[in-house]
Amino acid sequence: MKHARIVYGGVVHRVTEADNAPGHVLLPDGRVLAEEAVTWLPPIEPRTTFTLAINYADHAKELAFKAPDEPLGFLKAANTFVGHRARTLRPLDVAFMHYECELAVVIGKTARGVSRDDAYDYVAGYTVANDYALRDYLENWYRPNLRVKSRDTCTPLGPWLVDRDDVPDPMNLNLRTSVNGVQTQSGNTRDMVFDVPALIEYFSSFMTLAPGDLILTGTPDGIVNVMPGDEVVTEIEGIGRLVNTLAPFPS
């Protein structure tokens, strides 16, 4: 099942996707609304968010780096998340800002010392993340700093949280990004350097994961500069299609 959080009539609602109406939301009272009729929130309120640098071999090659020997993880602040169809602010002094289409893994129960064989038992579901980066502020490709990865509005998330059992093989999903209707990025989750079970095993080996924690699993190659006014669509097979528009900051 696909779940979402939206605002309609000034009230936050937890909704599901309407049967026989893809993209439409079903309110708890039975009303069906088009996606344009509501304001979308991130499908969860992230607790701790883990983000991966250089977790696709082709992206490592694109950046002229060797694939890492262990996950290159760093943390992301909650202020950065926005929902489907939201605006992301692009600083006017930035020369290069790019999207990153990523499979986001939502933790469903407390996890500590989890083996890779049991890792999927701790997953609640999956959603789509677009983890923008501002290269002008980048000091370390391997663990980007706060100005690169924790800026307000710079991580669209959603629109749906898809239940774990409705994604039979999360390690064989096509990813793609388009800018103003032109495809610029494509890849598949099978090309991750560290797959979902490996990441859960790694992070839970030294800290406790809790329900609502989020793991952003990295992006394939194909990143390009985006500008105010651009519409960026990040899409993952079976998970969702996340739409975002760039706006100037300050505006």
How does the SSE layout of this entry go?
Blueprint: E1 2-8, E2 11-17, E3 25-26, E4 32-33, E5 39-41, E6 49-53, H1 57-62, E7 72-76, E8 81-82, E9 86-91, E10 97-98, E11 101-107, E12 123-130, E13 133-134, H2 146-149, E14 155-163, E15 174-179, E16 182-188, H3 196-204, E17 214-216, E18 231-236, E19 240-249
**Shape call:** globular
Total number of beta strands: 19
Order of helices and strands: EEEEEEHEEEEEEEHEEEHEEE
Give the CA-CA distance, first to last residue.
Answer: 38 Å
Strand content: 35-45%
Low-confidence stretches: none
Total count of helical runs of at least 4 residues: 3
Structural class by secondary-structure content: mainly beta
Helix content: under 10%
Biggest sheet features: 12 strands, mixed
Mean pLDDT: 92
Rg from Cα: 17 Å
What is the chains' assembly state? single chain
Pfam families: FAA_hydrolase (PF01557)
Keywords: Metal-binding
Organism: Achromobacter piechaudii
Protein name: Fumarylacetoacetase-like C-terminal domain-containing protein
Structure explained in plain terms:
- It holds the Pfam family FAA_hydrolase.
- InterPro entries: Fumarylacetoacetase-like_C, Fumarylacetoacetase_C_sf, HPA_isomer/decarb_C.
- This is Fumarylacetoacetase-like C-terminal domain-containing protein.
- Residues 50-246 form the Fumarylacetoacetase-like C-terminal domain.
- The model has no long low-confidence stretch (mean pLDDT 92).
- The longest helix has 9 residues, at 196-204.
- Helices cover 8% and strands 39% of the residues.
- It is mainly beta and 251 residues long.
- The chain is built from three helices and 19 strands.
- It is globular.
